[in-house]
Amino acid sequence: MTWPTALTVTVVLLSQLLLNALGAALSESSSEQAPDERRVLPQAIVIGVRKCGTRALLEFLGMHPQIKIAPDEVHFFDKDDRYERGLEWYRQQMPMSSPGQLTMEKSPAYFISPTAPGRIQSMNHTVKLLVILRNPITRVISDYTQTFTKKRSRNESCVPIEDLVIDSFSGEVNLRYKPIDISIYHQHWARWMMKFPRHQIHIVDGDRMIVDPLSELIQVERFLGVKPFLTTDNFMFNATRHFYCMRKPGRATEHCLGFSKGRTHPQLKPTVHQKLKDFFRLHNNLFYQLSGREFHWDAT
Questions:
Q1: Cα–Cα distance measured from residue 236 to residue 243, given in angstroms and rounded to the nearest whole number
Q2: Which end of the chain is less packed: N or C, by CB atoms within 10 Å?
């Protein structure tokens, strides 16, 4: 009879320990995932607008137990290379959810994309869409501020905002500057109205959400058809950051968005600000007419 060596016994014991550990890990993983959880295509999408509070909107809604949010911007419907991966790839980017929960994602570039409205309609013509808007001039400044901050962190030169929003040759508003184009809301809104009925698109007032997030989110809860859940207890005003932070259920401390949110904006020269107000007045009125929703952007 050949007796096993000490090395053989050690290898067998280690193998058994590894198998036991793997089995325990798999068992723990299975227990954490409810048996009826699965990934589904989103029933609601935040389609924009960039620099209007899309991240805050999604994170606030993520506190609701009936809402599951995708952690990242998927950009499935506006980027051809991702769209070509197919709906199954898109579904895999969604979070696990249970029956009765609503899955959401947000990609702000959808709002200005020529292809996104039709592609989303082809996926689900009953999907609910949310668009959050701010004063178009404020949005332009916020857009510029983000680019300025990134360039400065790389020690790159930065052009003053006045030199970008105003054409140096004509002295008029520079339509080639992309942040200006994004803020002409009616031209992008019209594409969505060609594909979806108005009742499927909810507009969130981004300026109001900064000072009174709960009132806007209650309207969103109603639009999405989820039970009323969010209350004043879920929001705490941070005097240092000058905006509201979240207090998630079961937690005593607040959770604020990253330091990229709430940056200090540059002040426009009065003449430039007035020129932008005059420019956007007509475009804002066209948006009011198309959307059936009036704001008071021209007053500020």
A1: 8
A2: N
